[in-house]
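Morning run. Coffee first, then this:
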Amino acid sequence: MNILKLGKHLPFRSKLYDIYLNRLKGERVIEIEGFKMLCDFNTKNKGLKKAFAAYYFNKIHEPATTELFKETIKKGDRVLDLGANLGYFSLLAASKGCEVWAVEPESENYKYLCKNFNLNAFKDYKIIQAAVGDKGGEIKLFKCGYDSGHHTIKQANGIKEYKEADYQEQTEIVPMERIDYFVKDMGGVDIIKMDIEGAEALAFQGMSETICKNKNLKMFIEYFPFLIRKMGNNPEKFIKKLLRKFEVWIIPDDYNAPHQLVKINKPEDIILKGEKDHFNLYVKRK
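And here it is:
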């Protein structure tokens, strides 16, 4: 039985789901999408254990986005993965012969990100512990206990209100840089994957040089209006800014997306059924 498919019908905090998670013990290395990944079921971090279980049983993450990502990247591409988490998309790009820069702010995720690259024989990569925003410096990162992919900068409201969870504040101070800073060091970029929990509009403010100088840039961006608003930005204005320089599509099927690729010509083309709906965007330079 695929417990992640079962998990789609069970709350992750339900007793039955907890029983399945508690049966998983030890460290296990899996083969997934052409690379190796560590699943550490010894961890006491429930959010991480849930993520490891998802990879262990499903052997894929965001299936539609994964397929489009694989179709888009090519050997030799320079890929910047922002919010790399445990490294799924970074490792996928590296396995296809891309030069990868993986950027992840949270220390536990960063630790496993490094371990996952060490499991593989990839050569052209760099791993950086940092957040991404509209300026350089340091910033407070708020950690999410129920989801290892939901840590967020600046404020904890997105964590507390998205799942209406009991939140015990845990934070760490991390470096923060602009996208332009990373891309300048990379010498250019072909693909950016951006999944930074509502900070996407902030990060976009810090990539004007990148947009100007990289005419064939393509991006995969999580669009999560609820979290963008909690960060103090306007999601509709963010879409308008994207549309000035890029063609934008909703990637189908993953999360709350429609079942077909939808091109966006104006913010009103995005129809969300629920306040907390979200999905991934495919963005291509005009």
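Residues 1-13 have pLDDT under 50 and may be disordered. Good start to the day.
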